[in-house]
Amino acid sequence: MYVLITELLSGLALFLFGMKYMSDSLQQAAGGKLRTILDRCTKNKYLGVISGALFTAFIQSSGATTVMEVGFVNAGIMTLEQSVGLTFGANIGTTITSQLVSLKLTAVAPFIIFIGAAILSFCNKPMLKKSGCRHFWFRRTVFRN
């Protein structure tokens, strides 16, 4: 019983330390630009829900979205009211990801691969090349048999 309580308290202390360290680091690194971007994405709760859903569908992890959001609120970059919309959006984004997996989009997979290969071969801009890699990654994860 003593070991269980010790492990529980140690884990809680490590979690709180990590949250404090992350919020301090975010506060130092964020500056005004991140705050401006987050303010624009969460002007109202509906825009916050859409932003949260898109971000979660893009990174495919509502847990990561929520952890970043808690860090932003803890660092003072976002308000609690702004984070509510993002949390709802994160949950919606998770369902979007599961729906994409369940659609069996194997008929369009070759076209997506072709688009990704063309972007990788002919585009010189780094952002477009990353987008092309994203197409290949999307093919590997969504179109598994």
Termini gap = 47 Å
Taken in chain order, the helices and strands follow as: HHHHHH
* Mean pLDDT across every amino acid position: 77
| Low-pLDDT residue spans | 135-145
Notes on the structure:
The protein has 145 residues and is mostly helical. It contains six helices and no strands. The longest helix has 40 residues, at 2-41. The radius of gyration is 19 Å and the shape is extended. It starts with a helix and ends with a helix.
Secondary-structure blueprint of this entry?
Elements: H1 2-41, H2 45-59, H3 62-75, H4 80-102, H5 109-122, H6 126-142
Helix pairs in contact: 1-3, 2-4, 3-4, 5-6
List keywords for this structure.
145 residues, mainly alpha, extended, disordered C terminus
Structure at a glance:
With 145 residues, the protein is mostly helical. It is built from six helices and no strands.
